[in-house]
Write a structure and sequence with these properties.
Largest sheet: 3 strands, antiparallel
Strand order of the largest sheet: 1-2-3
Order of helices and strands: EEEEEHH
Number of strands: 5
Strand content: 25-35%
Distance between the termini: 54 Å
Number of helices: 2
Shape: globular
Helix content: 40-55%
Radius of gyration: 17 Å
Length: 112
């Protein structure tokens, strides 16, 4: 059986707030990659529930964090179609992403 590993490294400040997030993966080559935020969701088979890890660095701008959340919802829409074939649920999620993107565009225009 082939095994693949993903490793995250989080550098924390004195108050335990993330300053840097890096990751590497056996299937992504030898390079270390950097991120401003991560969102990991696992389905715990024993608890039959979701376990989540949400981290972001203190230099992650609010507007980028909002876009990150919308992108995650869009990605989940694709996952639901692939995993279950439920196109209606995916379409509702995509519609929410479109609505939220328009909202964020409006916010950004007001800040200019």
């Amino acid at each position: 059986m082939k095994k693949s590993e993903i490793r995250f490294s989080i550098a924390l400040d004195d108050q335990k707030v993330p300053e840097a997030i890096s990751w590497s993966a056996t299937d992504a080559g030898p390079n270390i990659h950097f991120a401003k935020a991560i969102n990991i969701a696992l389905w715990d088979r024993e608890q039959a529930g979701t376990m989540k890890i949400d981290l972001w660095t203190k230099d992650m701008p609010v507007d980028e964090m909002k876009r990150f959340v919308v992108d995650n919802i869009g990605s989940m829409a694709e996952n639901i179609v692939t995993a279950t074939g439920d196109k209606e649920m995916a379409e509702q999620m995509r519609a929410l992403c479109k609505q939220l993107s328009l909202y964020l565009d409006k916010q950004e225009q007001q800040q200019q």
